[in-house]
């Protein structure tokens, strides 16, 4: 449901379901944008995405992966700022094995102000109420709402670093070229 670009989709929040959905949505795409203010590879609930990146379907070109997250860490009353050096080192350590074995291009953007969560490709876009976290204890079903092409384009523009109006805090890029 929803993978044919015709409707939203609802599924159980399990790693296997996320992997299936992402695998099908990422087939023959040129880029993927993961937009989630709470995105954090150091948290177990996001770590499954490493396997997703590792198992991307074969593509003719290097897939561009963009991760857009908040420039802060934590939730509620336990929020602390992220330093650029700290987050770059974290990503390098976590993605190093994956970048060494695959041809990937990962761009990370830290934003001062963000709220909504999206998954955007050059072919489809979804609004994701609960983001990418694999946290079935908090919720057992997730609904991804299909965006119109114009809304998908608007989200891409909203998270385009050249058009941010000062909201972008920091950005960096990692690829397997860094480890050759």
Describe this structure in a few short sentences.
With 180 residues, this protein is of the alpha+beta class. The chain has helices at residues 15-26, 44-54, 84-101, 149-158; strands at residues 9-12, 31-35, 64-70, 72-73, 80-81, 105-111, 118-121, 125-128, 141-146, 168-175.
Number of helices: 4
The strand count comes to 10
Backbone shape = globular
What is the average per-residue confidence, as pLDDT, rounded to a whole number?
80
Biggest sheet: strands, sense, closure? 8 strands, mixed
Please describe the topology of this protein.
Layout (H helix, E strand, L loop, with lengths): L8 E4 L2 H12 L4 E5 L8 H11 L9 E7 L1 E2 L6 E2 L2 H18 L3 E7 L6 E4 L3 E4 L12 E6 L2 H10 L9 E8 L5
Helix pairs in contact: 1-2
């Amino acid at each position: 449901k929803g993978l044919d670009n015709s409707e939203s989709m609802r599924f159980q929040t399990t790693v296997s379901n996320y992997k299936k959905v992402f695998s099908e949505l990422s087939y023959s795409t040129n880029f993927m944008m993961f937009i989630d203010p709470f995105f954090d590879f150091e948290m177990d609930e996001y770590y499954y995405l490493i396997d997703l990146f590792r198992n991307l379907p074969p593509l003719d070109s290097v897939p561009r992966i963009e991760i857009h997250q908040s420039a802060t860490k934590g939730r509620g009353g336990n929020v602390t700022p992220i330093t650029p050096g700290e987050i770059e080192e974290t990503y390098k350590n976590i993605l190093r094995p994956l970048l060494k074995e695959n041809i990937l291009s990962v761009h990370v953007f830290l934003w001062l102000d963000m709220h909504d969560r999206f998954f955007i490709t050059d072919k489809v876009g979804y609004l994701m109420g609960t983001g990418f976290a694999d946290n079935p204890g908090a919720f057992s079903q997730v609904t991804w709402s299909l965006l119109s092409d114009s809304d998908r384009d608007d989200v891409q523009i909203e998270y385009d670093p050249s058009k941010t109006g000062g909201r972008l805090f920091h950005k960096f890029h990692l690829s397997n070229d860094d480890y050759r």
